[in-house]
Amino acid sequence: MTTIETRGARLGRLERSALTGVLVREIVNYSSYWKSSTFSSTVEPTIYLLAFGFGFGSLVSTIGGYDYVDFVGTGTVATAVLFSSAFPAMFGTFVKYQFQRTYDAILAAPVDTEELVTAEALWIATRAGVYGCVPMLVAMVFGLDPSWGMLAVPFIAWIAGFGWACFGISVAGYSKSFENFNYVVSAVLTPLFLLAGSFFPLDEFPRWVRLLAALNPLHHCVVLVRNAVFGFDGWEDLLRVGGLVVFGLVVWRIAINAMTRKLID
Amino acid sequence: MAIRLRGVVKRYGSITAVDHLDLDVPEGTCVGLLGPNGAGKSTTMRLLTAQSIADEGELELLGFKLPEESKQARALLGVVPQLDNLDTTLTVEQNLLVFTHLYRIPRSERRAAIERGLETAKLRDRRDTRVDKLSGGMRRRLLITRALVHRPRLVLLDEPTVGLDPQVRQELWALIDALRTEGTTILMSTHYIEEAERLADTVLIMSHGSAVAAGAPSELVSEHAGDEVLEVYGPPARLAEVEAEARAAGMRTRRTGTSVSVLGVEAANGFELDGERRPANLEDVFVLLTGEEIA
After folding, report:
1. Scanning every residue of chain A, which has its alpha carbon at the shortest distance from the alpha carbon of B111?
2. Interface predicted TM-score of the whole assembly (ipTM), two decimals
C-alpha cells in the first residue's frame, strides 16, 4: 500500500472526500441507534395527530377549507422537521464536542471546521427530509388523499432541515453549557413552533403577529408543505422556497463561525 | 526535519502557554516532550494539528507551513489524543472503518488497512465487539492503531499511557517501539520519565512553555546530574541539614519527598555522608530543571 501523497496539491475548501469522511462516521453511528430515533420520530407526530386531530377535530371539522386532520397532518411535517433537526443538532453537537471529543479526532484528520459543520448539517437535513414525511404518511392512514405534490415534501423538509440543523449547531457553538439550551428552546423554538400555523391558521391573528410569522422559516415550511399536498401557489411558493434557502445559507455561515470559535483557539 | 518550530508563542489571555519554543524532530526519530503538567506539552500538540493557532513564530510540519497548509500535513499525520475519543457504541472494526474514510484511503485498500489495524492492535477476535465492552488496554491499543490506518509518516502521541496499569503500559510501549523500528517519526508527550527514557531517541524537557534542555536521555543525565547520586534518608530536619552540608560543599541536591539526592557525588572530593549510591537518572534531571514545587 502506498501512503497518500498530497504534497504539491493544495487541498481546497469543502472537499468531497472530507465531507464523505464525516458523513460515513454519522451513517455508521446511525446504524447503532436508528431504531430508537425512528421510533420517536414516528410516535411523536402520531401522538400530535391523534391529540389535535381527534381532540380539536371533534370541535371543528374543517378549518380554512381543509379537513382538520388533513390540516394538522400536513402542518406537523414542519414540527417533525424541527424536532429531527434543531434538537439533535444542538444536543448532538454539544455532546460530540464536550463529552465524546469526537471533533478533536475529526479535526486532527484532513478535515476543516467548515467541512465538519457542513457534513453534519447535510446529514441532519437528510434525516429531517425523511422523518419530516412521517406525519404526512400517518395522516394518509387517517384519510389524507395522496397527491403528486407530496413527492416535493421530502425536498422541502430537507431544505428547512438544513437551516434548522445549522441553527442548532450555532446554538451549541455559542453555548458554554447545556443549560443555555433552555433559553433557546423557551424563548425561540417554542414561539416559532406555535407561530408556524401547524395546528391553527394564523389568518385571524393581529397584523403584527402575521408579520412575525412571515419572518418565521417554520411557517413557510408549513405553508409550502400544505401547498405541495393541496396545490402550489405559483410565484408565492417559489419565494417561500427562496426564503428557506436564504435562511439555510445564512445560518450555515453562522454555524461555521460559531464552531470555528469553539474548536480552534 | 519532520517537525520544525522556531520561536513559537501561544497565549491564552494573560497566560503564556507556549513561550518562544524551538523544537526539531528529525525524520525517523522518536522525540519525547517531557515536562510537568501545565508545561505546554498539550498546547504544543494542538498547535501541530492547527487546532490552536500560534500568536508568533514559525511552524513547519513535513515541509508544510502551519496553519496555512495544515490540511496537507494532517493527511500524512497520525494523532493519538490523550483522552480517548473512540466511538463507544460502534464496534472495533467500525471505528477503524470510519478512519479509513476520514484519512481518504482508496476503496481498494480500505479492507487491507482495517485488517492491518486489527492485527497491530491484536484485536482480530474482537472486531465485532463494541468499544464500550473493551478493557482499558484494548481501547488504548485501538486508539493508537486507529491513528495508523493511513500509514502516517509522522505520529503524535499525547500522553499515550496516562492512567494505565504497568502491564498495559508495557504492552503499549512494545507497540510504539515497533512503530519506531519501522521508521515512523514520532513526537510523544509524556510526564512519565521512564517512558521517555525507554522510547525516545532525544528528549526535550519543557517548563513554563519553553524548552529548558534537549538531547539524548543519557547525555542529559551526565550533563546535568553527573554519574552517581547519593540518596540520604532521614527525618525532615536531618534532610535540611544534609541539603545545607551538600550545598556548602558545592554539590547540587534535589528532594525526592522522603530523601535528599546529592548529585554528581563521583566528582566530590572528600564529601562523605551515609546513604545509598545509585546511578543518576532522567528523573534527577527533570526535577532539577523543572523545579521541585508543583506550579
Report:
1. A1
2. 0.90
Q: Give the start-to-end residue ranges of the domains of chain B.
A: 3-221, 226-279
Look up the domain containing A250 and give its range: 80-128+148-263
State how many domains chain A has.
1
Interface touch A101/B83, C-beta < 8 Å: yes
Alpha-carbon distance B145 to B174, whole Å? Answer: 13
Residue in A closest to B49 by C-alpha? A108
Residue A232 lies in a domain: yes
Q: Is residue A221 part of a domain?
A: yes
Asked whether residue A113 is domain-assigned, the answer is yes
Beta-strand pair B56-61/B64-66 = antiparallel
Residue type, B85: N
Per-residue pLDDT in tens (0 to 9) along chain A, 265 residues: 344 444 445 567 899 999 999 999 999 999 999 999 889 888 887 888 888 877 887 888 888 889 888 999 999 999 999 999 999 999 999 999 999 999 999 999 999 999 999 999 999 999 999 999 999 999 999 889 999 999 999 999 999 999 999 999 999 999 998 889 999 999 999 999 889 999 888 988 999 999 999 999 999 999 999 999 999 888 999 999 999 999 999 999 999 999 999 999 9
Q: Do B151 and A10 touch (CB under 8 A)?
A: no
- Closest residue by Cα to residue A113 from A103, A101, A123: A103
Contacts of A112 in chain B (CB under 8 A): 71
pLDDT tens, position by position, B155-199:
999 999 988 888 889 999 999 999 999 999 999 999 888 899 999
CB contact under 8 A, A25 and B101: yes
Q: Which residue of A has its CA nearest to B99?
A: A21
The whole-model pTM stands at 0.92
Using CB atoms, which residue from A1, A6, A102 is nearest to B113?
A: A1
Closest to A4 (Cβ–Cβ): which among B51, B52, B75?
Answer: B75
- Are A149 and A68 in contact, with CB atoms under 8 Å apart? no
Contact A170, A258 (CB under 8 A): yes
Reply yes or no: is the peptide bond before residue A88 cis, omega within 30 of 0.
no
CATH architecture for the domain at B226-279: 2-Layer Sandwich (3.30)
In a domain, A254, yes or no: yes
Q: Classify domain B3-221 at the CATH class level.
A: alpha beta
- How far apart CA A164 and CA B84 sit, in angstroms, is 30
Q: Which residues of B are less than 8 Å from A22 in CB distance?
A: 102
Interface subset of B 7-46, CB within 8 angstroms of A: 12, 46
